[in-house]
Write a structure and sequence with these properties.
Layout: E1 32-41, E2 46-56, E3 63-69, E4 93-100, E5 102-107, E6 113-122, E7 127-137, E8 145-147, E9 152-155, E10 160-161, E11 164-165, E12 168-169, E13 186-195, E14 199-202, E15 205-211, E16 214-224, E17 228-232, E18 235-241, E19 244-250, H1 256-274, E20 282-287, E21 293-296, E22 299-303, H2 308-320, H3 337-353, H4 360-382, H5 399-421, H6 423-437, H7 444-449, H8 454-461
Parallel strand pairs: 1-13, 19-20, 20-22
Antiparallel strand pairs: 1-2, 2-7, 3-6, 3-10, 4-7, 5-6, 8-9, 9-17, 11-12, 13-16, 14-17, 15-16, 18-19, 21-22
């Protein structure tokens, strides 16, 4: 897999230091473009692909090296997401076949970063075109990128340009929990060919042609953070909410119409609370997945292992992510609370508006109880407990404390902010946050500025408040 050995530098760029992150801005703004042609071969879990990437430099820096995440390598031998495999036949990985427009080298944890050394510096406002031909072997795993018992999950199956931060590009390792994906919006044009037995679920606008035992999908997604597919043998139910088509592809769900109704109600509710749904359509798909669900741009997946009584809450949470992640981005690695805490609090708001599904106060109280139980046990076991919310994924001991701090404490924090600033200012703040930072990567300070209550936010984020 390695073409050369790389010495990893934190920035790897010729820089004129600036503040702020690269942001894609609103529709029509200058941003990078991905044109991907890929074919999936079921017999050996292989994806043959070519990605033409037009990189737009929206910063004030000049770049000599561009880092791209190769998340397929997070499923290889010794990696945190590697499936259990005695002989290695279930492992995944990426083989770079050819790169044009730059010289490549691999680095990062598990070889998940591909560094492309440009022939000439890429200056502010300029574009450069790079082509990467690669082979992706999908791991036998029911995760974001892999082959499960029923479906094939294709997320982050292409080289992903790292977002640019204040001190360099944001390169993060897979921690085995949470989400390490931080990227700017881009335009995608994807042609994916698959065996004819599969139906593809995806976000964005697409067309399908079936011939010679194969199906070819052509999908265009503008101004989105990602493009993802799930391949399966699906049935489909569809509806519409305020002109937004909503589609649900499923294979096991015994109550698909009910799941669709929840999704439609969630879109309707959040449009009233946050502003217009940020995309032209919304698709959900049932798939093999170890967690409840996962969000992508104009797309979400639900685990086929969900119990009936769990499904509605997962649908609402993932739908909230269409505003808090897909539209308004944030640094999910350093500040997981910013999208996850707000999405989880959005579930409580959904219950407040739709009492047939749940109860706002019971939802908030459940999160508060979960946090207090965690704090009590952790204090007895280790004495001091780090309850700070502004912290990287690597600082958490695992899924449990990550979940409690990012999700549950996040719910309590937003509830307390609402009590402090009042309903009028709070809900105006939600709409302002969605409108001002849609298509951008918002900092914690950006979010806080929409509500005020700076000291209250600080007490939660720094771990100083008593709950």
């Amino acid at each position: 897999m390695r073409k050369s050995v790389v010495v990893v530098l934190s920035a790897l760029m010729v820089a004129l230091p600036i503040g702020g992150m690269t942001a894609c801005g609103s529709a029509g703004a200058k941003r990078s473009e991905y044109k991907i042609e890929a074919e999936y071969f079921e017999e050996d879990r292989r994806l043959e692909a070519s990605a033409e990437i037009v990189v737009y430099n929206g910063s004030d820096n000049a770049y000599s090296v561009l880092p791209f995440m190769l998340w397929g390598n997070a499923y290889g031998a010794g990696a945190k997401l590697a499936p259990a495999s005695v002989h290695g036949e279930d492992l995944g990985g990426v083989k770079i076949n050819e790169v044009t427009g730059a010289e490549y080298s691999l680095g990062g944890a598990d070889g998940t970063v591909m560094y492309l050394a440009l022939r000439e510096p890429l200056y502010a406002g300029e574009r450069t075109t790079l082509t990467v031909d690669y082979t992706l072997i999908l791991a036998k795993t029911e995760h974001r990128l892999g082959v499960g018992e029923n479906c094939v999950n294709l997320s982050w199956f292409y080289p992903v340009l790292c977002a640019a931060g204040v001190e360099g590009f944001l390169e993060y390792a897979e921690e085995g929990f949470g989400e390490s994906f931080v990227c700017d919006c881009a335009d995608f044009d994807v042609t994916l060919t698959v065996p004819e037995k599969f139906t593809a679920a995806y976000g964005g606008e697409g067309s399908e042609v079936a011939e010679n035992g194969k199906k070819t999908y052509h999908v265009v997604a503008k101004n989105t953070r990602d493009v993802a597919f799930v391949l399966g043998e699906f049935q489909t139910v569809s509806g519409e909410c305020g002109g937004v088509p909503v589609q649900y592809r499923y294979f096991r769900d015994e109550f698909p119409e009910e799941t669709l109704r929840v999704a439609l109600k969630a879109v309707e509710t959040f449009e009233k609370l946050f502003g217009d749904y940020p995309f032209d359509k919304y698709t959900l798909a049932e798939t093999d997945f170890p967690l409840g669900g996962m969000e992508y741009s104009a797309f979400a997946v639900l685990s086929c292992a969900l119990r009936h009584e769990e499904r509605a809450e997962v649908v609402v949470h993932e739908t909230a992510h269409q505003w808090w992640y897909a539209s308004v981005g944030s640094n999910q690695y350093e500040n997981a609370w910013q999208d996850e805490g707000l999405a989880e609090y959005s579930v409580a708001l959904f219950y407040e508006c739709n009492a047939d599904y749940g109860d706002y106060r019971k939802s908030v109280n459940a999160s508060e109880h979960a946090y207090r139980a965690y704090f009590s046990v952790a204090s007895q076991l280790s004495g001091e407990v780090n309850t700070a919310m502004t912290r990287p994924l690597s600082s958490f001991s695992g899924e449990y404390d990550y979940r409690v701090i990012a999700y549950d404490k996040g719910v309590v924090m937003f509830d307390r902010v609402r009590e402090t600033v009042g309903n009028r200012r709070f809900f105006a703040g939600l709409k302002s946050y969605a409108q001002k930072y849609g298509g951008k990567i918002a900092s914690p300070e950006d979010l806080i500025s929409c509500f005020g209550a700076e000291r209250l936010f600080a007490s939660f984020l720094e771990g100083k408040c008593v709950i």
